[in-house]
Amino acid sequence: MKLRRIAALIVLVSALACSIEPAPPVPPDSIAFGVFGDGPYRSWEVGRFRRLIADVNRTDLAWFLHVGDIFWYPCSEKNYQRSLTAMNSIRHPVVYTPGDNEWTDCHESIAGRYPPLDRLALLRRTFFAHPTRSLGATPMALTSQGEDASHAEFVENARWVRGGFVFATVLMVGEGNARDPGRGVETNAEVDRRIAAALAWLDDAFALADSLSLTGVVIAMHGSPGLQYHPQPRIGYEAFLDQLETHVKAFDGPVLLIHGDGHNYRVDHPLRDRASYEPLPNFTRLETFGSPDIGWVRVVVDTISGEFSFEPRPMRRWWL
Questions:
Q1: Which one of 73, 197, 200, 276 has the lowest number of neighbouring Cβ atoms within 10 Å?
Q2: Residue 11 burial (C-beta neighbours within 10 Å; 0-12, 13-18, 19+)
Q3: What is the pLDDT of residues 109-125, one digit of tens each?
């Protein structure tokens, strides 16, 4: 009996030590959404990922944004289905934009030596069978770039408007945005088409913001474009950053870029005018957590002032 009491006490103390305080209520005239990416990669991260989902499910959110890298390896259909089940266990709408781990890196031996374009096709069948509807237990309506006949293959690029902001996802992944001669001619031709589609979708988002007199623009993708190195961005992101800079300079309202890939939580203002090298004050970058850190970020948008606030919610590492 004494040993049982001790064991129960240990469990209680561990739970209290590893618990996270509930998120505060959403302020008036504001919307809140969650951001997560790059995990879980390893078996010992799965417990924290379950706790993360529980925390997300008890939090008042308009939607939950997954910025890719849903697993590390292998690129098996079983892993895709497992990730889809996890996303659909979230009670909020879930908007997902893929990362490199789940398709462009699948040719590696550790991932199963799958052809990347084959895995991209499987991703689209699995996660984007209904591209005008989000994932999650309570889906919300989306506009898909795939509805445009000229970009019909890019069903994963989504857009929606809420609280005076336009939100858009673009398929720009980590590891140089898959710009690698070793992946073959066919794969690199896909990169060219995908970048062209991303640039067109970026243009459309800002054009919509202008036409509707919206307050701001939020763009989400997986790949870290190398903003800390701008004006010499990482290979594969040059055209995107050029066009993003042009739009940010011309737009009066706030612009938020959300991405993963670097596995380091940070909020900063790294985009600069290439001519003067002065920072562009209306631009903010959010990079979310990534393995081995399992955590998410609650973003609150003040729909009156247009200001963002960020609440990091990491799961304690020793909670398995």
A1: 276
A2: exposed
A3: 999 999 999 999 999 99
Q: Tokens in use for 59?
A: 């939090």
The model's pTM is 0.92
The single-letter DSSP state of residue 57 is H
The residue behind tokens 């991703």 is 123
- Alpha helix locations (H) across 214-262? 238-250
Tally of CA atoms within 13 A in the half-sphere of 216 that contains its CB = 19
Helix (H, G, I), strand (E, B) or coil at 188: helix
Distances from the Cα of 277 to the Cαs of 129, 157, 216, 285, in angstroms?
A: 43, 31, 23, 17
Q: Do 99 and 67 touch, CB atoms closer than 8 A? A: yes
pLDDT tens profile 149-175: 999 999 999 999 999 999 999 999 998
Angle of CA points 284, 147, 101, to nearest 5°: 55
Task: Let me know: does 95 contact 64? Beta carbons within 8 Å.
Answer: yes
Contacts of 260 (CB under 8 A, 6+ apart): 37, 38, 67, 68, 69, 99, 174, 222, 224, 287, 288, 290
Which pLDDT value is given to residue 215?
98
Q: For residue 295, what are the β-bridge partners?
A: 314
